[in-house]
Amino acid sequence: MSDYALLARQLETLLDTRDWLTNTAQTCAFLMHEIPDLNWAGFYLQRQPGTLILGPFQGMPACNPIPFEKGVCGAAATSRQTQRVADVHAFPGHIACDAASRSELVVPIVHDGELWGVLDLDSPRPERFSEDDQHGIERLVEILINASDLSTPTVTG
């Protein structure tokens, strides 16, 4: 079990710039190093309406793009609610980027009332993420949001 109060203090110290790219990259590396049993940690950004585009991450190469209608990330983006999935193989529309992933936690990142992106954590362990993990990771996302200039990503054509 992770000490999320300690992790929150560490992340606040680590994010010493307002640059969103640096801060999301640092957050991925931090989570991969500090949270046990992860095989992927990364961000997907909403740069086009209804689509998530791969951002900074740690782990195996990832799926890109992800439409809002697909997978756990799409569900989090559409609902703007954290998705905690004990068994990704039982999740309708699951996108299998890494066959080793068994459970997933996806936290939406909302800035100024708009979906900015999502933080996606995958684990090779079924039922890896508890309610405590969810609340702890949601708090870490709040720290990232408060520490970063999250200009709304522009729609690319």
From TrEMBL:
PROSITE patterns: UPF0067 (PS01320). Gene3D superfamilies: 3.30.450.40. Pfam families: GAF. Coiled coil: none annotated. InterPro entries: FRMsr_CS, GAF, GAF-like_dom_sf, Phosphatase_reg/MetRdx. One of its GO terms (cellular component) is cytosol. One of its GO terms (molecular function) is L-methionine-(R)-S-oxide reductase activity. Residues 6-156 form the GAF domain. PANTHER family: FREE METHIONINE-R-SULFOXIDE REDUCTASE, GAF/PUTATIVE CYTOSKELETAL PROTEIN. Belongs to the free Met sulfoxide reductase family. This is GAF domain-containing protein. It comes from Chromohalobacter canadensis. The lineage of its organism: Bacteria, Pseudomonadati, Pseudomonadota, Gammaproteobacteria, Oceanospirillales.
